[in-house]
Task: structure prediction
Amino acid sequence: MAFHLDYFLASLVSGLAYLPRTLLLVSLPLALGLLGGLVLAAFRVYRVPVLGRLTALGVSIYQGVPIVVALVIYNLLFMSLFNDVAAFFGVATTVAEVDIIWVGIFALALQEVTLMEESFRGAFYSVPAGQREAALACGLTELQALRRIIVPQLVPVAVPMLMNHVVGNIKNSSVVIAIGVAEVLTGASIPAARTYSFLESYVAAGLIYWALATAAEQLIGQWEIRPEARQSSWFWQVCARVRRRRTVTVAQQEKRGQVHAELEAYQKIL
Amino acid sequence: MEALFSWQRFWADVPLLLPYFLVTVKIVFWGIGVGLVLGIVLACLRLRHLAWLEPILHIYVSFMRGTPMLVQLLIIFYGLPLVLAAVGVQEAVRWDKMVFVYAAFALNETAFLSEIFRSAILAVPAGQLEAAYAVGLTRWQAYRRIVLPQAWRIALPGFGADFIALFHGTSLAFLVGVIDIMGRAQALGASTHHALEGYLFVALLFIVCSLGLRVGFNYLDRRLAYGR
Result:
């Protein structure tokens, strides 16, 4: 067996060129999933009459469909129905003009919504019921209580869970090659079409995904470090340095010290 | 233009697709079977923190958990025969291709199950192992009779979720040309120009099986909830 390093490097470069596409496939479904998941979870937790039941039913059914199967079905429907629907609404675009990446984003987003719904539901139950009751007793409406009291308390619970979703989504994003969307995996195998070095291409793609997932994990992991322990973390040190450089110059600091001294003097007089 | 979907074609597809479900079941069987054994071994090895082995195992688990199943499938499907041939197993190139699909899923499951079992073993109170040593059990006896039975109970929910994920993951196999139920649905679609019915049946089958599996694992979880 020969593992050609030059083919491997060519694949790596070619795969990296498609990184923005993969990042789009990861970030947009994630954002939509966050939003949709939160709303659907709220439907279920607050037992909104019809919607709550529908969400419960829909989510548990939809979670049974593998992402590839869903993707292929959406692609088929998109291909055969888009022209008619576009004509019906008087849109002049045809199916050939639409980037198929949107079908992939749609499928990934829907999957992400159902997964996020589960996570957010768990997070909702971690906020004590007294919080909502107290907010209502203060005269907030149900929506105000949700927005100002409950959702902010979901954040610390939701951040660690977000990490699983980011990594899961990075890995899921590769299945879109089933419908021919160009992204990192396809990009990495472009040189292989000429050289038949498919193994090198797949290893290169694997390394890119691995680096991406590890980086995401590390970055979000930094948020879990308690504020008092952040001194020893390189990430927070860099953040602090950037912040310091951007906001406070030496002159400003001196001025601040002056003002502080003046204030203290006033206080003494008073 | 013909209708996009017809129940007639749907029912005609069912007997053509159903036999290929066996391929999916076989992948799950080998994936879980081999993955479970190797996963527990790997978990126990990692818990011993062997100085020379630990970095390798850590990288292995990290790679398997950090890269898409599809990429692993492609690497192992195309790469493992070459690696085997390079180390002297020349006939590996002529083996049934399914062996490498099973291997891909088994190696992936090994990593995931090892993490599930590692955390489960760590969740068993340390006093259990110490007590086992105190009454004179060897390490092997202590793990087999005291720690693993308790760890198994703790690992069950994670194992169930992983099982269903593997079941879903098998649907990727058609992308390397395996004729499983999904591959068959694609082939049917290509020959009849009506793919939707086949795919829909596959989706329904996956939904029913996943719900069944989930109900089954929940039942097991409740039945085995003794002593808490």
Observations:
- The radius of gyration of chain A is 25 Å.
